Amino acid sequence: MTFITANVLPAAPEIFVFSMACMILIVDLFLTEPRRVVSYLLTQLTLAGAAVLTVQGLAAPGYAFNGMFVADVLAGVLKLAIYLVTFFVFAYSRDYLRDRGMFRGEYFVLGLFGVVGMMAMVSASHFLTLYLGLELLSLSLYAMVAFQRDSDQATEAAMKYFVLGAIASGMLLYGMSMLYGVTRSLDIATVRQAVSALPPDHTLLVFGLVFVVVGIAFKLGAVPFHMWVPDVYHGAPTAVTLYLGTAPKLAAFALVMRLLIGGVEHLSASWQDMLVILAVLSMGIGNIVAIAQDNLKRMLAYSSISHTGFFLLGILSASPNGYSSALFYVLVYAVMSLGSFGMIVLLSRAGFEAERLADFKGLNQRSPWYAFLMMLLMFSMAGVPPTVGFYAKLLVIQSVVNAGLVWLAVAAVLLAVIGAYYYLRVVKLMYFDDAEDRSPIAARGDVKVLLGANALSLLVSMPWIGALIDLCRQAIQGIR
Amino acid sequence: MFTEHVLSLAIWLPIVGGIAVAATGDRRAPLARDLSLVVAIMTFLVTLPLYTGFNPGTHAMQFGEDYAWIEAFRIRYRLGIDGISLLLILLTSFSTVLVIVSAWRVIQVKVSQYLAAFLIMEGLMIGVFCALDGILFYVFWEAMLVPMFIIIGLWGGANRVYAAVKFFLYTFLGSVLMLVALIYLYYQSGSFDILAWHELKLGRIPQILIFLALFTAFAVKVPMWPVHTWLPDAHVEAPTGGSVILAAIMLKMGAYGFLRFSLPITPDASHELAGFMILLSLIAIVYIGFVALVQEDLKKLIAYSSIAHMGFVTLGFFIFNAQGIEGGIIQMISHGFVSGALFLCVGVLYDRMHTRQIRDYGGVANRMPIFASFMMLFALANTGLPGTSGFVGEFLVILGAFQVNVWYAFLAGTTLVFGAAYTLWMYKRVIFGAVANDQVAGLQDIDAREALYLAALAVAVLAMGVWPDPFLNLTHASVEHLLQQVSVSKL
C-alpha cells in the first residue's frame, strides 16, 4: 500500500479536481434553479482546495505513474496560475451567464475538466500524458464554445474550432510518432537522451519536428495557423472566450516547454528557424490586422496572436534566460487577457453584448474607475511602462538580444509600436469620445473587487517584479 | 532621513498626491484644486533643499539613492543629480505650480483628472532627470507619455485626438529603439548603471549604432528637424497647461538625454556625427525660423519658435566646448521660462477670445495694458534681448560656435534677426494698432491670479538675464567633466 500512495501523491491535485468535477456534475442534477449557485461555489472551492494541495506538493517534487507524470516547480507555478486565473474567470462570468440563461452546472464542470486537462499538460513527462491532457482540454473547450446552443455564430465557431483542432492534434500525433520511431520512446527524458546522441540534422527527427511544431503552432494560434482564433474568440459567448483566452495559454506554454525544450532541445538549431518565422509573422499579421477590427473580441484575438509571437521570441532564444522570460511573459499575458475580457463581460448586460469597440465610447464619463482600469490593461498590453506588460516585453527582448539576434529585437519593438496603435484607440474611445449609452455600470461587489485587483496588479506589482522573475528562473531550472 | 531621500520624495510626493487628487472624483472640483496646489507647492519646497544643499564644486552625483529592484538583471532603483539635472528639476517643480494655478478657472471638465495628470507627470519628469539606471530612466521616460496623451486628447482643441495619437506614436516609436540600445549596453557592461556605461569601452560601429538608436529617441523629443512635425500639432491642440509642460520641460528631456547618454557613452560616434547634428540644428534654426514667420496661429508660431530655439541647444552641445554646452543648458532653462510664459500669455488671450488666429486680434494693448507689458517682456526675451534670459544662452552658444567655425556662428546668428522678426511682428499684430473688433473691445485685463504667475516668470526671466552666475556656477563642474568624457576616445 505504501508503494501506491507514494506513487500517486504528486498527482493529488489532479485527482482532487477530477473527483470534485464528477461530484459537482452529480450534485448539480439535484439542485433547483435558484440554488444553482451551489455548483458555482463548489467549483470555486475545488480550485482553492487544489491550490492548497499544489502548494503542499511543491515541498516534495516527484514523479508518479511510472515517470509519466511529474510535479516539478514549473508545473507547480503554472498550476497555481491556472487555478487563480480560472477562479477569476468563473467569478467574472457568473452574472453574464445568469443573464443569458447559461448559468448551468455544465459550464463549471466542463471548465473544471478543462483545468484537469491543463494540469495534466503542465505535469506531463511523457508524450501520452501530454496528449491526453491536451485532448481533455480541447474537448472541454469545443463543448464550451458551443454552449449557447441556439447561437449560429457559436455553433459555427465550435465547428471550426473542432475541425481545426482535430487537424492540429493529428499533426502533433504524427510528429510524435516520428520522434517515437527514431528514439523508441515516448518518455520525454528518454527522448531527450536519445536525441542528444543523434546528429541534430537527422532527417527523420527533423521531419517529425516539423509536424510537432506545426501542431504546436495550431494550438497556440501562431500565424499562419491562426485562422481559427478570431472566429472562435468572436463566436463563443464572452464568458467562454474569457476562459479560452487565459488559462489555456499557460497550458500551451507548458506544451511548448515539455515538447520542444524538455524533449528535443538538442534540435534547437532547427526549431529556432521555424519559430523565428512563426514569431515574426504572428507579430506582424496579428498587430496589423488587429487595427482593422471594429469588434473588441476579434481585436483581442488578433492581439493574442501577436502576443503569441512575442512569447515565441523568448522560446527561440534557446536559453534558460529566454525560457524564463517567456514564462514571465505568458503569466503576465494571462493576467492582462483576463482583465480585458473581464471588462467586456462586465460591461455586457442582459441582452446586450459590449463587444464592439464603440461600446467603450465615453467610458470615462460613465465610470472613471473602470475606464482607468481598462486603460491600465490596454497600456500594459501595448507594453508601455510602468505597467508589467513593459517588463514582460523587456525580458523577452533582452533574451533575444542576448541570443545575438539584435535585428529580431528591433523588428519586435517596431511591430510593438504598430500594436500600440489599436490599444491606444481603445483608450481614445474611452477617454476622448462621448458616451452613446450612459446607463450606469452595475456589477456585483466581488467582481468589482476582483477586477480592480486584476488590473491594478499590473501596476502595483512593480516593486516585486524581481522576485517574480526569480521564481520563473527557478521554475525553468528544474525542467532540464 | 529627509536629505537621504529627498529625490525619492520629489518623485513620489506628486505622484501619490496626483492619485489622491484623482480620487476626489468629478464632483469636488474646489477640493481637487486646493489639494493639487498644496501638493505642487510642497513638491517645489521639497526640491529647494536640492539647490541649497548642492555642492557645485564637484561633478559627482549628489543626493544619491541606490536600492535593489530587479536583481536578476541588475536593474536598480538608482537616483542622483549633478548640476545639469538640478536646474531641470527646479524648472519642473516651478513650472508645475504655475500650470496648476493657470488651470484654476479655465478647466471645468474633469478637473481632478486634469490636475492629477499634471502632478503625476511632474513626478515622472523629475524621475527622468535623476534616474541613474537605464531601465528606471526608460520607465519614467515612457510612462510620461500616458498622462500627456490623456491631457492632449481630453482637454485639447478641435483636432485633439489626431494630435494625441500622433504625439504618442511618434515618441513611442522614437523610444523603443533606445530600449534595444539600453539592452545592448547591458550585455556589454553587465549592468544598467548609466555611470558605468560612461566608462564602458565600445568599438566604432557599436558606438555609431547606439548613437543612432539614442538619437531617434532624443531627436524626436527635442524635436530636431525633420522629426519635429508632431510638435506643432501637439502644441496647438493641447490645453494651455499641456503646452507649457511640453515646451518648458518635455522638450528638454531630449536635450538632457544627449548630455546624459549620447555624449558620454558614445564620444567617438558623437564626434564623427557632429557635423550631421550641427547641420540638423542649423536647419532647425534657419529654416524653422522662416516657417515661424508665416504662421497664422499664435500657438503654432510659438511652437515653431521652440523648435528653432531647441536647435540652438543641440548646436551648443555638438560643438564640444564649455561655452557651447553651458550655453545650451542655459538656453534650455531660459526657453523653459520664456516659452512657458508665452504659452501662458496665449492661454490668457484664448480664455477670453476662444481663438488663436493672429488675424482675430489687434489693439489688445488698448484694453489690456498690464498684460501687454508682460507679453512684451517675454516676446523680447524670446528674441534674445540682452538683460533677459534668452540672451545669455544664445550669446554663449554663438560664442562657442565662433571657436569652431565662423559660418556656424553666422548661421546661428541669423536667429537674432528671424527671431525678432517673427516674434515682434506677431506681437505687433496682436497687441498694437487700433482695436480690431468688438470682441477685443470687450477684453478685461488680467486678474491677480494671472498677474501672479506671469510676474513669477518675469522675475525668473530677468534674474537669469541680469545675473546668470548662480545658474552657470551650478553647471561648471558637471560640464567640465562631461567635456573631459567626450574628449577621451573609447576606441
TrEMBL record, chain A:
Its EC number is 7.1.1.-. It is a multi-pass membrane protein. Keywords: Cell membrane, Membrane, NAD, Quinone, Translocase, Transmembrane, Transmembrane helix, Transport, Ubiquinone. The chain crosses the membrane at residues 12-31, 38-61, 73-93, 105-122, 128-147, 159-182, 202-228, 240-262, 274-292, 299-320, 326-348, 369-392, 404-424. The keyword ATP-binding does not apply. NDH-1 is composed of 14 different subunits. Subunits NuoA, H, J, K, L, M, N constitute the membrane sector of the complex. It is found in: Cell membrane; Endomembrane system; Membrane. InterPro entries: NADH-Q_OxRdtase_suN/2, ND/Mrp_TM. This is NADH-quinone oxidoreductase subunit N. It comes from Candidatus Muproteobacteria bacterium RBG_16_65_34.
UniProtKB/TrEMBL annotation, chain B:
The chain crosses the membrane at residues 6-23, 35-54, 84-104, 111-129, 135-155, 167-187, 207-231, 243-261, 273-294, 301-322, 328-350, 371-400, 406-425, 451-468. It is found in: Endomembrane system; Membrane. One of its GO terms (cellular component) is membrane. Keywords: Membrane, Transmembrane, Transmembrane helix. One of its GO terms (molecular function) is ubiquinone binding. Residues 133-416 form the NADH:quinone oxidoreductase/Mrp antiporter transmembrane domain. The keyword Membrane applies. It is a multi-pass membrane protein. One of its GO terms (biological process) is ATP synthesis coupled electron transport. InterPro entries: NADH_Q_OxRdtase_chainM/4, NADH_UbQ_OxRdtase, ND/Mrp_TM. Pfam families: Proton_antipo_M (PF00361). PANTHER family: NADH-UBIQUINONE OXIDOREDUCTASE CHAIN 4. Belongs to the complex I subunit 4 family. This is NADH-quinone oxidoreductase subunit M.
